[in-house]
Automatic annotation (TrEMBL):
SUPFAM superfamilies: Glyoxalase/Bleomycin resistance protein/Dihydroxybiphenyl dioxygenase. This is VOC domain-containing protein. It comes from the Bacteria. Pfam families: Glyoxalase. Residues 7-124, 137-255 form the VOC domain. Signal peptide: none annotated. Transmembrane segments: none annotated. It comes from Humitalea rosea.
Length: 258
């Protein structure tokens, strides 16, 4: 891929029920799902209007036995996977999967920041640019949000490793600041302090939908749970934070048509 170091290039769902997940996200986000022949863990691709946005795989049994839960993870492009992994570990992060080749696809590693937020780094082999993160395109990711236990440390870590910079700040009262992130002057997402007693540090991804109320109905009808929203955010659009029927947290963002 020709994406720059620090770009989000892929999103991946680890789930306990592939068929149910495909049905759910097809109804909520509009994705079509297709199997990858011969791939491990029943890997599937999620796409929309001819563009691939992400994938899903069955949560490995060893991960589930170790306490792993269904969830979404993001892939961040790097120039050199081995060098990036070594730098992240040296900066206090952790390595969950060492640099590994996927034949014909690229090289990746699964890592965690010093506070425990998990992500992948990857260097792809294919020509072209990933549009998995494409604000404004329906069905693509519009926003990458990190909830962490140490916001200043996380900002310093990701800034050093991927070149991300601080943008605007939105005060959130007792919850502290919602710190926007930019990458090459493009809004990438934000970092916030995780709520006291809430989930462990983690990334959450918001996917674009054409009608936020239709998405809300689909979440409810297909067995998901809405934890927050629809609520309006700057720009006259609305967001929902929810979980799918298997418990994976996700977000959707879009306009209100009614």
């Amino acid at each position: 891929m020709t994406n720059r170091h620090g770009d989000f290039i892929w999103y991946e769902l680890l789930t306990s029920d592939q068929d149910a997940a495909a049905t759910f996200y097809g109804a909520v986000v509009g994705w079509q799902s297709r199997a990858v022949e011969g791939a491990a863990h029943g890997y599937r691709i999620f796409g929309i209007a001819g563009a691939d946005v992400g994938g899903s795989m069955t949560l490995p049994a060893e991960a589930a036995q170790a306490g792993g839960r269904p969830g979404w993870l993001g892939y961040i492009a790097v120039d050199d996977v081995d060098a990036a992994a070594a730098a992240i570990v040296a900066a206090g992060g952790a390595q969950h999967i060492p640099p590994t080749d996927i034949p014909g696809i690229g090289r990746f590693a699964m890592l965690a920041d010093p506070q425990g937020g998990i992500f992948y780094v990857m260097r792809g082999m294919a020509a072209g640019t990933s549009t998995a993160f494409a604000p404004g395109m329906v069905g693509h990711c519009h926003w990458n949000e990190l909830a962490t236990s140490d916001q200043p440390a996380a900002l310093a870590f990701y800034g050093t490793q991927f070149g991300w910079r601080k943008g605007d700040v939105m005060p959130m009262g007792e919850m502290g600041d919602y710190q926007f992130l930019t990458h090459h002057d493009v809004g990438l997402g934000a970092v916030m302090t995780r709520p006291e007693g809430g989930p462990s540090p983690m990334w959450r991804f918001y996917f674009g939908v054409p009608d936020i109320d239709a998405a809300a109905r689909a979440i409810d009808e297909k067995g998901g749970t809405i934890h927050h929203g629809p609520s309006e955010v700057p720009g006259g659009i609305f967001v929902i934070v929810g979980s799918d029927p298997q418990g994976a947290m996700f977000g959707v963002v879009g306009p209100r048509k009614a």
